[in-house]
Design goal:
mainly alpha; 482 residues; elongated; 4-stranded mixed β-sheet; 4 strands; 4 domains
């Protein structure tokens, strides 16, 4: 749902991009792709285009007074109706806040999660301010809903039951469900679960209990370009991307005092600045350097989906790292890779890049540039030279490289794990898989995820978040994996 003029502009721009993509597909049929796959791709684009069109029409109709807002509502209808009523009355979020004696930011937060964090008394105040008639049986029981229906709907959208329990639902609600078991399947518990999920993703409980697909809002993911691995479904990737993006927004909210700096685009210059400020190019030191640029870094450990992401929202960058390994060199490479993306299109207000495993090298000019940036910082701009030295010292014998790489790294003043990863990449170009050997040369102490989390906690001010969003963010960086 579009809630303000800025979202309206973003949605219109996104709709134009879908129109361009559809037109390009219609003109350029790829004979190497099965016709059914091409049709499925077109259908997906049309579906998302139609969703955006409907959102635009709804907003236009409300602004022009062509749509009546319901006066007799159910609990699940109420949040959206409050937003629709404000728009239809021609009130800005600031004007409604003034009527209630609140700050504009409070109304923005309420509407961002469709009033999920507002208590009953506050809802009544807003209803009164907007002149909506509220029926007496507003809080009817939801006995005809079930948890299994919710979990089934969410699974189709890429969210497994374990993920919902461990990442999306409040701990006290999870504990109650596990304790009560069968009793929790009825009564108000399904509505509580649906409301919690809706609060996270900006959906409504009505949508969760309905039949419409729970798809990712393109305006939330920005202009992201996705490189989907063969082992991950598009649905799973889209679902987790949406979740990670929301966490990124919360992290930006908690770091409002960070002042964004210009992001350097020269890897050798970045290396010099890190060495000058911190003395060595370690994962911790580079993390502190990136935070010093005003870019918060969120470490995640959930399995699957992507390995890294960089978003820019209203000129502020946020980086998300998510590795399945404890290799310091791999975490460092991913961090530098995403930092390179953060420096792209510096004049753009919005930007997004979500990707799989950059260390194993994706084929595109953008990825090549980001990989070279990371290599230049980690290997002093000498990656190819050092690789040749390793081959020469090993006399061309791959089986000797495990011994040779650490020797060359020590002699040349670079880290052995970083050089090992680069050698694995170079050998992969010759159809030789050396990643397993490179993994044996990795350093894992201190644990990179713990280091990144601890530095995050040094910088955040959790008082900027409401209790629900604060708990959501803290669970995401919890020690335990589900």
């Amino acid at each position: 749902m579009i809630k303000n003029a800025r979202q309206y502009r973003i949605t219109k721009a996104q709709m134009r991009k879908f129109e361009g993509a559809l037109a390009e597909l219609a003109q350029n049929k790829n004979k190497n792709i099965h016709p059914l796959l091409q049709k499925a791709h077109q259908d997906a684009l049309r579906s998302q285009h139609e969703e955006l069109r409907m959102q635009l029409e709804e907003y236009d109709a409300l602004v022009e007074g062509k749509r009546n807002v319901l006066e007799r509502l159910s609990l699940t209808d109420l949040p959206r109706a409050l937003i629709q009523a404000r728009i239809a009355m021609g009130l800005s979020q600031k004007e409604l806040a003034h009527r209630l004696g609140l700050k504009e930011q409070q109304i923005q937060r309420y509407e961002a999660n469709e009033y999920a964090t507002a208590n009953l008394e506050r809802l009544k105040e807003i209803v009164e301010a907007l002149g909506i008639e509220m029926q007496e049986d507003l809080f009817l029981s939801s006995d005809h809903y079930s948890l299994e229906e919710i979990f089934s709907r969410m699974k189709k959208s890429g969210f497994e039951k374990n993920f919902i329990f461990n990442r999306l639902l409040p701990r006290d609600l999870v504990a109650y469900i596990e304790q009560e078991n069968e009793k929790s399947q009825t009564g108000n518990v399904p509505l509580q679960v649906a409301t919690a999920i809706a609060r996270v993703f900006g959906w409504s409980p009505t949508l969760i209990f309905g039949s419409r697909p729970l798809i990712m809002d393109p305006t939330i993911a920005g202009t992201g370009r996705f490189k989907t691995p063969v082992y991950a479904t598009r649905t799973r990737l889209s679902a987790y991307t949406m979740f990670a993006h929301i966490l990124g927004l919360h992290l930006l909210d908690t770091t409002q005092d960070l002042k964004p700096q210009k992001v350097p685009t020269n890897g050798l210059k970045v290396r010099e600045e890190i060495l000058s400020s911190y003395g060595s190019v370690t994962f911790e030191n580079v993390l502190r350097y990136v935070w010093g640029l005003g870019i918060p870094v969120l470490p995640l450990r959930d399995p699957g989906a992507f390995h890294g992401a960089c978003w820019r929202i209203e000129y502020r960058n946020v980086i998300v790292l998510k590795q399945g390994t404890d290799s310091l060199a791999r975490w460092l490479f991913d961090l530098l890779h995403e930092l390179a993306h953060a420096g792209e299109d510096p004049d753009s207000e919005e930007y997004a890049m979500v990707e799989t495993d950059p260390i194993e090298r994706q084929d595109s000019d953008e990825e090549a540039a980001a990989n070279k940036f990371a290599d230049d910082v980690m290997l002093a701009g000498r990656a190819e030279e050092l690789a040749e030295k390793c081959v020469e010292a090993a006399e061309g014998k791959v089986e000797w490289l495990k011994r040779v790489v650490p020797e060359v790294a020590e002699k040349e003043g670079v880290e052995a794990d970083a050089l090992a990863n680069y050698m694995a990449y170079r050998l992969s170009l010759q159809q030789l898989n050396w990643w397993g050997v490179a993994s044996n040369l990795q350093k894992t102490d201190p644990l990179p995820w713990v280091t990144a989390r601890d530095i995050l906690l040094e910088h955040v001010d959790l008082s900027y978040l409401n209790e629900f969003d604060r708990d959501l963010l803290m669970r995401a960086i919890d020690d335990g994996l589900y």
